[in-house]
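PT: before anyone asks, these are the final sequences, not the draft ones from last week. 524 residues across everything. Please model them as a single complex and drop the result in this thread when it's through.
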Amino acid sequence: MAEFLQFFFSGITVGAVYAMVALGFTIIYNASEVINFAQGEFVMIGGMTSVFLLSAGLPLPLAIALAVAIAVAVGIALNVLAIEPARGASVVTLIIITIGASILLRGLAQIVFDRQFHTLPAFSGETPITIGGAALQPQALWVLGGALVVVLALGWFFTRTLMGKAMRATAHNRLAAQLAGINVRFVLMLSFALSAAIGAVAGVLVTPITLTSYDAGAMLALKGFAAAILGGMGSAAGAVAGGLLVGIAEAMGAGYISSDYKDAVAFVIILLVLFFLPRGLFGGKSVERV
Amino acid sequence: MLLEVQGLTSHYGRIQALKGVDLAIAEGELVALVGANGAGKTTLLRTLSGVQPATGGSIAYAGCDITRLVPHRRVRLGIAQVPEGRQVFGPMSVEDNLRLGAFTGSRQTVEADLEAQYTRFPILKERRAQAAGTLSGGQQQMLAIARALMARPKLLLLDEPSMGLAPLITQQILAAVRSFRDDGMTVFLVEQNAFAALTIADRGYVMETGRIVLHGPARDLLADDDVKRAYLGV
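LR: through. Structure below.
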């Protein structure tokens, strides 16, 4: 039981990170139908930038805030420099552009930062909390709490503010949104900024647990993609559920089968979902009457 | 002239949908555009709203050239459109749909405008918390019209508001359209139901394969033998 609980804790912690990456996918996908494979790089930029700003002598909170701001700037730049100029191109072309952007960002990170692994100090110490015989790192609570805050803030934004509603309206019906006077190009830019911010927050929170490096984004993007597919592409609730499920499945697989296959779990999930549940758990429900 | 269109062309890839359209609408007029399916009526309206690019010609609105203006700026200038097929935001509530219609407007007037639309279409007030996609076709059409009115338009473009609706509902909708004009709004109404449209309009244009082939006072068009034969089924 203690063993199961231990795997479960590690699963929901890493799952919360996947959930945040999947939310980033979801937001951009809804605004543009593009799957942004540079999503993992936002996570990496968040982690790496805070590490380097901290070692440059900045206090941790300031380093984190700046890291998130820089990731947002990179997200907006990605949209303005790479996605906007290709407006009108097919979705597949745009997806390939994001893959190129992710490779470019990884290369730049190698030059701007370095090729070492880095970590941040845990935010509130490293004395584990024991629950039912299993140890829970305080940083894991930061990750879970951070993910919860992100989900609640997004929920509030998308259901309570006019701009959030405008973004949902654009996702649902781009033509009608344009005719209602919504600037859909701004919506796209905002979706990149939001996704970058969420990714960077995830990167900052998880770095004390998992370490980070210039190429940490690629695997995170694939895991987050598996989560988004499992939840149903385009569904925010699905992204969160998918993230937690992928995280838990991965931790259980690593614990009970072999940690050699840890990364394979996400790929098996992608394949199974595509074969048997192509719309995912929460996708493809429609209440429209024409 | 509030709206002046000259030599307007538009393409879908290689196919030319508008082949040089000329028309003019004065302030306060209700002008109908009739024509068969595929004549280019919807393309014309979409080009006027800027969601379909013009490949040639010009659109002047209130004396300013808006041919290349992005869609949301046209809404700000006072051009609102009720699109073909209603296009409500299905998963969102009726009230959210209306509030999004006022996206470009000022925050101060939204509540009063919302009440005005609820007074005009009481069924929308009854259903305001319901998802727009669950409304009936007629109710969705009322919502699409009310949403466009929330933008406080000077020029209202209506694309086939009677499409797929029962005759009684069509009458109600067209009576409402007529009342907008009586309140001083400029209305450009596109309809396949030529008889109904020309009955309430001041003037009319007839469109065929991307061109305006006939225009004049609505009364004259209703009496025109060619129009009767081709569009009124008389």
